[in-house]
Amino acid sequence: MTHSARIKTMALEIISKQLFKHNFVSSLKKSFPVCYTHSSSDLIKKESKHNAQNYQPIPVVIKKGKGSYVWDVEDRKYLDFLAGYATLNLGHAHPEILEVLKEQAGILSHTSRAFFNNILPEFVEYITNYFNYDRVLPMNTGVEGGETAVKIARRWGYRVKKIPSNKAVVVFVRNNFWGRTLSAVSSSTNPTAYEDFGPYMPGFTLIPYDDTAALQEALSNPNVCAFMMEPIQGEAGVIVPKDGYLKEVRRLCDEHNVLWIADEIQTGLGRTGRLLAVDHEEVRPDILIIGKGLAGGFVPMSAVLANDNVMNVITPGSHGSTFGGNPLATRLAITTLRLLKEGAIDNAAVMGEKFRRELRNNLPKDVIPIVRGRGMMNAICVNPDYGTPWDLCLELKDQGLLSKPCDGNAMRFTPPINMNEIELQEGLEMIYKAVKEFSSTKMQRRA
Ligand SMILES: Cc1ncc(COP(=O)(O)O)c(C=O)c1O
Questions:
Q1: Tens digits of per-residue pLDDT, 20-75?
Q2: What's the pTM?
Q3: Domains in the chain, start-ordered, CATH in brackets?
Q4: Is 438 tagged catalytic?
Q5: Rg of the chain, C-alpha, whole Å
Q6: Contacts (Cβ under 8 Å, ≥6 apart) of 256
Q7: Could you tell me which of 285, 262, 272 has the C-alpha nearest to residue 173?
Q8: Known active-site residue 263
Q9: Tell me, what's the pLDDT at 265?
C-alpha cells in the first residue's frame, strides 16, 4: 500500500469510528467497494437517483433495530409503530430467533424442493398442528400466498365443484389489498395500483366489504369457486367489520359450496390479539393465507393452509417456488410460532385495548374523530381541515415515532405485538404531542 493510500485508509477509519460506534461500517466497507456516504440526506438523494420510484418513504434512514426501537444514521432513536408493515410482530432482532438464524444459516439455508431437507418435514408437521389444517403450501411473499390460494380455489372449482372449464369466478371485496402482482391489481379498486397495468385477470368479481346481502347475491352464481377477503382490511385503513360478519361469511360459503379464503397476511400471527382474526368469531376459513412475520421478519415467508379435500388438487408440477419451504425460513417459522404463544398474543389484546382507550380519551375529537382497530392493528382518522395523515406522520417522526399513512385519511399503528406498557406509554405521549403540534401548525397557517 502506498503512503497516501495508507493515510487515506487511516483517515477513513477514524471518520468511520467517529460516525458509527458499531461494526456495521466495517462490514459495509467490505460489501461496498465504492465510496459511500453516511448522512440521511446523502443516502436519500442516492436512493432517489438510482432506485425505481415505487415508494414514497418517510424521510428517515434507519440503520439499526432492536425490539420496539430503531435508530437512524445520525443515531436518533425512534419507536417503531409500523414494524415493517406489521411484520416484526416480535420486534427487531429478537434474540432467540436471531440465534436460530445464525445457526441454521451456517448449516443449510437453501436446497430447493428438488430434494427433501431435514427441516421442512418438521415445519409442515408443526404448522399444520398449530393451525389445525391437513396440509400447508409454503411460499415466500404474501402476494404469492394469495396467488397460490386463488390457483387452488380455481382448480378445486373445476375438479371438485365441476364448474365448466375456464368459467370459475373468484369474489373479492372493494378496497381489498393483497399485493402487487397482475392478479392482485386486477382485483384492486385503487386506480394508483391498477391503472395502465391491463389487460386484467378475468373471472374476478367485486362486492362491498362487510355486506352479507351483496355476498349472498354474488355467491348465487354457480360458477363462483371462492370468496377471498381480509378479516380486517389493513391497507384500506384498518376497517373492522360488524360483529357476526365472519360467521355469516362462513355460513353463506357453506350454503353455496364456495371456498372461503381468509387473507390473514396482516391480521394473522397474533396481530389482532388472537392467533388469527377469524378466531374472534370462532370460525375457520377453507383456505388460510399467512405471511409477513412468519419467519420472524428476518426473511420473507408465507404459507397457505387447507384440508386434504381442497389442497389435494395441487399435484407435482402444478405449483412451486424456488425458495418456498427453504430450511432457513421454515426453521425460523417454527421458532417464531412457538414464541408467539409465549405471551405475545395476549399482550397484543391488552396493549391494543389500552392504546385505543387512551387515544380516545386524550386526543381532541375535532382533530382525530376516529380511533379504530383490534389488538395491535389500529388506525386513527385525521380531520382533513387540519392536514393530511402524511403531515401528521412527519410530526410523529419529529417526536420520535415512526408510522405510515394508509388509504383515505387514516394513519395506521402496527407496532410489535410484544411491546411493553412503558414503550406503549412512551408512544402515546409522542402521539399526543405530535397531534398537538399538527393541529397548532394548522391553526398558525389559518391565522
Ligand atoms: C392483507 C395483505 N395481503 C397480502 C399482502 C401482500 O404481501 P407482500 O407484500 O408480502 O406480497 C399484504 C401486504 O401488505 C397485506 O396486507
A1: 444 555 555 555 544 455 899 999 999 999 999 999 999 999 999 999 999 999 99
A2: 0.92
A3: 78-92+345-444 (3.90.1150.10), 95-342 (3.40.640.10)
A4: no
A5: 23
A6: 219, 220, 224
A7: 262
A8: yes
A9: 98
